[in-house]
Specification:
CATH superfamily of the largest domain: Trigger factor, C-terminal domain
Order of helices and strands: EEHHEEEHEEEHEEHHHHHHHEH
Number of helices: 12
Oligomer: single chain
Number of domains: 3
Structural class: alpha+beta
Helix content: 40-55%
CATH architecture of the largest domain: Orthogonal Bundle
CATH class of the largest domain: Mainly Alpha
Distance between the termini: 66 Å
Largest sheet: 5 strands, antiparallel
């Protein structure tokens, strides 16, 4: 069988099969099928072969052809030591062009490219460093306190006090109001509400609106003008001046829980031990910091490898990755309750990311092969155990991963990536870059 080079990666293989062999195999299968074939008016197994062939001949012939072509293609690939990327496209040749007594097919496919890795040592990388100390633990505890805030009416005595002598509305108070807004004397959509609650200072309302509420007491009203910003999301009112009248119906002050044994219990510390609570928070923060640093570092490493590597990308692999991403997006949107049955998913939207993923996959495979970075069983085990520590029953999580080979396969892929990242960092010019805790954690630490 002859392999023809059509392009850098594209190949065409001509396959010829003796027609007599095909017909012989079809005949054998039809005879086998006739032994169990049932038809009204005939005893089982006594239906004439001609009738069986009329009904199933085309189907059986296709099965035989597909099997023989597939077998011939695999044999040719093995003999020519080809690494096929994606599934081949197989089409019959014109009968007029072929020799007598044979059926001929063309198999068009792509091969994996040669990956030329650049000099990893030439890369200059920055590795983020973020320490976790008492200040970061205290900051996290404060966030946890704010997540457990609850409100009490100002001026009313209760278990936690009355909120102080000043019963007017101020920052951090939750206020409930009625408001009516008009523009040139006409009400507008979204300009009025009853029993509307919000927390002063959180930025939910425009600054002028919050300023008007600040200082008022329950039962008091106020009328004021408010000019909407020119880039306001409500286009009908953007840039216009409205007149609002507000009436305060309730003011509640925020009570933050004390950091005590009871608070520790709400975080899952059974005996309320504050030292244990801080140790657990530290361990959780260190895991999260490590994960985020690894993600940032990995992106830098991947960008670096892309910049120094040369390769052609098989179109078949890109198209397969696009379809995988479309299906993943479709499932994710469906799980969120969105109707995606008739929603278009243009492939070109996914193409840049798909090409990057395929390119990186080929580079990583070459890195693993060339520098012997395969995942070792002890590395996979350590990674599983580390992941399991974030759960209430780590041993159950470990058993779950080891229960199915496919789950371990996902971990193995992560370990391979980690091996490549660590190798590149060790070989490249990598310098530590201090990154503040708040910056690394983003909004969660704000």
């Amino acid at each position: 069988m002859q392999v023809e080079q059509l392009g850098v990666l594209e190949r065409r293989l001509s396959i010829s099969l003796p027609l007599a062999d095909i017909e012989k195999e079809v005949d054998v299968r039809l005879k086998r099928l006739s032994r169990t074939f049932k038809m009204s008016g005939f005893r089982p197994g006594k239906v004439p072969l001609k009738i069986v062939a009329q009904q199933y001949g085309y189907q059986v012939q296709n099965e035989v052809l597909n099997e023989r072509v597939g077998r011939a293609f695999s044999q040719a690939v093995e003999e020519n030591k080809l690494r096929v990327a994606g599934a081949p496209t197989i089409a019959p040749k014109s009968s007029a062009a072929g020799a007598e007594g044979v059926v001929e097919f063309d198999a068009t496919f792509e091969v994996y490219p040669e990956v030329k890795l650049g000099d990893v040592a030439s890369l200059e990388l920055e590795k983020p460093v973020t320490p976790v100390g008492d200040a970061e633990i205290d900051k996290t505890l404060e966030i946890l306190r704010k997540q457990r805030v609850h409100y009490h009416p100002k001026g009313e005595s209760g278990e936690h006090g009355d909120g102080g002598p000043d019963t007017s509305a101020h920052a951090a108070d939750r206020v409930t109001i009625d408001f009516q807004g008009t523009i040139e004397g006409t009400a507008f959509e979204g300009g009025s509400a009853t029993d509307f609650a919000f927390v002063l200072g959180e930025g939910r309302m425009l600054p002028e609106f919050e300023a008007a509420v600040t200082g008022l007491k329950v039962g008091e009203s106020k009328t004021f003008d408010l000019t909407f910003p020119a880039d306001y999301h409500g286009k009908d009112v953007a840039g216009k001046t409205a007149q609002f009248t507000i009436t305060v119906k309730q003011i509640e002050w925020a009570h933050l829980p004390s950091i005590d044994g009871q608070f520790a219990e709400t975080l899952g510390i059974a005996d309320g031990d504050l030292t244990k609570m801080r140790e657990e928070i530290r361990a959780n923060l260190e895991r999260e910091v490590k994960k985020r640093i690894h993600t940032r570092t990995k992106e830098k490493v991947m960008d670096g490898l892309l910049s120094i590597s040369e390769l052609d990308v098989p179109k078949a692999l890109v198209e397969a990755e696009i379809q995988r991403q479309i299906e993943s997006t479709r499932q994710e949107m469906s799980q969120r309750g969105m109707k995606v049955d008739e929603m278009p998913f243009p492939p070109d939207l996914f193409r840049p990311q798909a090409e990057r993923r395929v390119r990186l996959g080929l580079i990583l495979s070459e890195m693993v092969r060339q520098f012997k970075l395969q995942a070792k069983p002890e590395q996979i085990k350590a990674h599983v155990e580390e992941l399991a520590q974030a759960y209430e029953n780590p041993s159950e999580v470990v058993r779950w991963y080891y229960a199915e080979r496919s789950r371990l396969g996902e971990i193995e892929a992560l370990v391979l990536e980690e091996n490549v990242v660590n190798y590149v960092i060790g070989a490249a010019h990598a310098k530590e870059l201090p990154v503040p805790f708040d910056e690394l954690m983003g909004n969660e630490a704000a």
